[in-house]
Amino acid sequence: MPRVTFRVNGEETTLEVEDDRTLLWVLRNQLHLKGTKEGCGSGECGACTVLMKGKAVNACLVLAMEAEGQEITTIEGVGTEGQLHPIQASFVKHGAIQCGFCTPGMIISAKALLDENPCPTEEEIRLAMVGNLCRCTGYEKIVQAIQAVAEENATKP
């Protein structure tokens, strides 16, 4: 069985992986990182969004072998023990979490956006989040939570 080596949330890992396994399957079943959710399995819902080389990708569409040598960040790698990342804290503060199923993917997509563009407009936020589906919130509170972090970024020196 082929081996793949990559970094997940800052830790290097080497695994034996079947050729047809997705990054999502490996994260959930071999590394037991359950925060990355499987929704549609076809790249339509965004529940499985992770960062790969700092870019938001649907882990259900990435073969695990494609992660060779890459840096992967899952929701478990956002924030630290006992300290929420500002995006996570803003989602809580603004009530942007309902059932929570889509939340990890939403937060990862928001992080990718804010890492690239710390002060996006509302239109840019909505465009960046278009690949993440939520059946509970209507998106307004999600957009407000991201806007709040962007506003905080705008006031930083």
Explain how this protein is built.
This protein is of the alpha+beta class and 157 residues long. The protein folds into two domains: 3-77, Ubiquitin-like (UB roll); 86-155, Orthogonal Bundle (DNA polymerase, domain 1), CATH 1.10.150.120. Helix content is 34%, strand content 15%. The chain is built from five helices and five strands. It has helices at 23-30, 86-93, 103-116, 122-128, 140-155; strands at 3-8, 11-16, 49-52, 55-58, 71-73. A five-stranded mixed β-sheet has the order 2-1-5-3-4, covered by helices on one side. Helix 2 (86-93) packs across helix 5 (140-155). The longest helix is centred in the C-terminal third of the chain and has 16 residues, at 140-155. It starts with a strand and ends with a helix.
Q: What topology emerges from the helices and strands here?
A:
Blueprint: E1 3-8, E2 11-16, H1 23-30, E3 49-52, E4 55-58, E5 71-73, H2 86-93, H3 103-116, H4 122-128, H5 140-155
Parallel strand pairs: 1-5
Antiparallel strand pairs: 1-2, 3-4, 3-5
Helix pairs in contact: 2-5
